[in-house]
Amino acid sequence: MTETQPQTDIDLDPVTFEVLRSSFTNLVDRMAQQIRRTCYSFVIYNRDFSNCLNDAEGNTVMQGSKDIAVHVGTLHYTCKETLEYFEGDINPGDVYIVNDPYLGGTHINDVRIMRPVFHEGELIAVTQSNGHWADVGGPAPGSFNIEANDHFAEGMRIPPLKIWDAGEFRDDVANLLTTNMRLSEDRMGDLRAQTEATRIAEERLLELVEKYGVDTVMTAFDESKDYVERIMREQLSDLPDGTWHTRDYIDADPNKEEGFVTIDVEMTIDGDEVHYDLSGSDEYVGNFLNSTFGTSFSAVVSGTKMFFPDVPLNSGLYRVVSADLPEGTVVNAPEPVPVTGSVAGAYEKVMNAIFELWSEVLPERAMACAFNLEYLLAGGQDQRPGRDGQEFAWYDWMAGGWGGRDGKDGSNATAPVFGAGLAVQSLEGQERDTPLVTSEHSIVTDSAGPGEFRGGCGLRKGGRMLACENSVMSYCSDRARSITWGINGGLPGVPHGVTLTRDGESQDMGTVFSNVPIDEGDEFVRPSSGGGGFGDPLERDPEAVLEDVKDDYVSVERAERDYGVVIEEIDPDVCAYEIDPEATDEQRAFIRANREDWLREDPDTITERYHEGELDKLDLIRRYGVILDWSSGELLERTTAEFRELLRERAASEWTPVK
């Protein structure tokens, strides 16, 4: 289906246009309010959902003001595919359901509900609600199965289906779907909540049609898209033409030797358009960290939109922003390659690469790499008193640090860039619903990437299992090796990963695993990285480093080793610290004279010094660029070489030269 121009000759006056354009946004935001008030899933309640208004051809007229980024740029694809699938059989009272990631969607947990809207027998729009269902079946609770070799081992893939047929609820279809999912009652509740949201949007749209007339509203649809296209073209026209290039990485392909998986992004501004070429990216990997076309296009749109915050979002933007996403690569995995973990894998890598590219074009808005999205999931039988072994699903994500910016430190403990509107989940709510108790939730000292403007700080979250049976845990993340990086001379954050303690024995579980058995008394902890640093850490104001030490953002030891600021502890209990100016000058001169050589030191020697306790993990990462398998302590030679190259390009090349 292609987008057409208005069918009428109506020319809207500016006031009517602005009233209707704002009404479309309000319509979508009312859908969000409805879902939060009626959903069953704690995941959706914490804002892992988005809504939109589509025109009769599936083009996005408006998304909401608080939609999460990963759904941006995908909802119109899903709508178009569904309208095409049911062409000739679209009726008033129909409601459709689909979660197919290969039809322009994201992953199978994102379930879209669509309602065609008719006026006097003519299709005029589609209202759409997308919610992340906490489970859609499959071997692993939460449907994140790292062992999946194809989507058949991930969960229930739903092609376009009628869930209401001309106003008649298809309870047979709904039951078939939800009974193949854990916590079926919750899934049915989310289905009804999303459906009701689309009905409310239909009701509000028809009120606008009754008040202004269908021709006026349809013209406002088209003019809303034209408006977004126009202002985006105007802003691009003010920028220099050119081509910029960078890369980001997934830690590894489990089917190959150790070494990064490249996501290659080239951006070209040509007049009033911007194009992205990702054809240099590696082929899809042997686990679920791949992206589909829709997910990667979403990352392109979201990464771009971050630098143009005043531009509304609808299909008008897609006339200006385009992308080459070759099939068979990690950014466009074909059916049936698994893609459930795409947001923690390829998606955010594309976004962060685009941040770096736009940081060169618009340096006043520059930002280093943000922490990696991660999901920790647990499921089984709740054996607490009164629960009688009922099924539970604990589905958790963490906040973390965003990258340092030009002139400002990064944001601490913020939602991941894939979903800036996500809420930090209520610990009390989680503990009420599931047999887990949170043991700690605090900012991680030294997690922020050092820089003239440091990254935001990450968090550490720990928990302990209560009475449960037949329970397992899964984890989806990345950047244990391709650690959150800085720009313009800034340094990396800290590795992601989970530590699980059972029977007094602690084990580093890494960033991806599925269905690990857990039992009452087992404990776990995981940190989120801080954002990468911006600018040379040796140029940071020593007084700012001192304040970070007082706030426990930076330790006294790392203040000296990362920033070259020597701080004396007078009385830490009352935050009494003092900078030693002479020692600071000496330490900064020492680091400046040696740091480029540190990146050339023999990795085997550095690894030995680490095992002997002379160096710690952050020394390896930030000083020497050495990456180990953090579980076994084994040196990763190829990964180290690639990581060092990253540090040379993004950090060492920008460091202040020796005076």
Automatic annotation (TrEMBL):
Residues 13-537 form the Hydantoinase B/oxoprolinase domain. One of its GO terms (biological process) is glutathione metabolic process. Residues 519-540 are annotated as: Disordered. One of its GO terms (cellular component) is cytosol. InterPro entries: Hydantoinase_B, Oxoprolinase-like. GO terms for molecular function: 5-oxoprolinase (ATP-hydrolyzing) activity. Pfam families: Hydantoinase_B. This is 5-oxoprolinase. It comes from Natrialba aegyptia DSM 13077. The lineage of its organism: Archaea, Methanobacteriati, Methanobacteriota, Stenosarchaea group, Halobacteria.
